[in-house]
Amino acid sequence: MFSTAARALASRSLPRAPSILPPSRSMLTVSRLSPSVAELTLDKAPANTLSLEMALAFSAAVSEIEADPSVTALLLRSSSTKIFSAGLDISEMSGPEPARLADFWRAIQGTYLSLYSSRLATVACIEGHAPAGGCLLSLMADYRIMTGGGPRIGLNETALGIAAPYWLKDMFVETVGRRNAELALLKGTLFTGEEALAVGLVDEVLPLEEVYPRAKEEVLKLARIPAKGRAETKRLLRGAAVDELLAGREADVAWFTEFVLEEGTQKGIKAYLDSLKKK
Ligand SMILES: CCCC/C=C/CC(=O)SCCNC(=O)CCNC(=O)[C@H](O)C(C)(C)COP(=O)(O)OP(=O)(O)OC[C@H]1O[C@@H](n2cnc3c(N)ncnc32)[C@H](O)[C@@H]1OP(=O)(O)O
């Protein structure tokens, strides 16, 4: 059964990410695939990491697209075929200034609140790697199409000595099932496209050159489903999860900041960041 609050959610628009900084549009591009379908391209070299500014720009772009009533569907992709998104910008969590760290997490929550609760039909076109926060971005979509072979997707937070927040963990459990999620989360598994398909983390796997054309075909198809019923169904499926985070947003910020600022966590994050830079 859905809570009264979750039902109420269905009849009002959701709060968006806080406007801490003016969103920069240079990290994202928005275009139209058709009069009713928008395409949002992550374009922040080299790895489409989610910094505070990128997270705010992402939520602002989704809100802007949604504000146009003629748009019913959204395709999310990366300008790079190598990396969809390398997840959260780890330098935001290494030796952070506490107030910025808290704003950073609010902005990350905002990406989830904006896309997971979106009225739009959404497809993620995952041509390259999508670890951790990259996997989060794709999990928020309604349908995921990924390249087979090389790129990896999954929640590898434990490998960094951190943990996925409960709302990301919940979305992962909902998608791949309890046992698959436990196995993957505890080990920090990153899946190939084929492995991800086997556990239900993605919906289709194709050779690289076929991923984007197929993603376009799917989003154009989804755009033709009557928008009102689809949006209402989505709210019924996801409203309670969104509502839970809305009710406990600051408690989640406190959990994140305390965890990240701990000395042991800081050591692990710094070592991981250094290993990335030394590659
Ligand atoms: C309680 C806390 C809960 C917090 C939840 C956190 C979720 C997260 O998202 S944490 C971030 C997890 N992300 C990763 O572990 C991915 C790390 N990156 C990689 O494994 C690789 O970059 C890649 C497999 C995605 C791509 O490899 P490739 O060889 O093509 O590129 P690189 O040379 O490694 O990267 C290019 C460039 O980008 C920098 N970089 C990559 N990822 C991140 C990142 N997440 N944060 C900051 N910077 C990143 C990398 O250092 C390179 O920089 P330079 O060109 O300056 O060397």
UniProtKB/TrEMBL annotation:
Question: What's a Pfam family in this record?
Answer: ECH_1
Listed CDD domains: crotonase-like
Question: SUPFAM superfamilies of this UniProt entry?
Answer: ClpP/crotonase
Residues making up the signal peptide according to the UniProt record: none
What is the top-level taxon of the source organism? Eukaryota
PANTHER family named in the record: ENOYL-COA DELTA ISOMERASE 1, MITOCHONDRIAL (PTHR11941:SF45), ENOYL-COA HYDRATASE-RELATED (PTHR11941)
State the family it belongs to.
Answer: Belongs to the enoyl-CoA hydratase/isomerase family.
Instruction: State what protein this is by name.
Output: ClpP/crotonase-like domain-containing protein
From which source organism is this entry? Tetraparma gracilis
Q: What is the lineage of its organism?
A: Eukaryota, Sar, Stramenopiles, Ochrophyta, Bolidophyceae
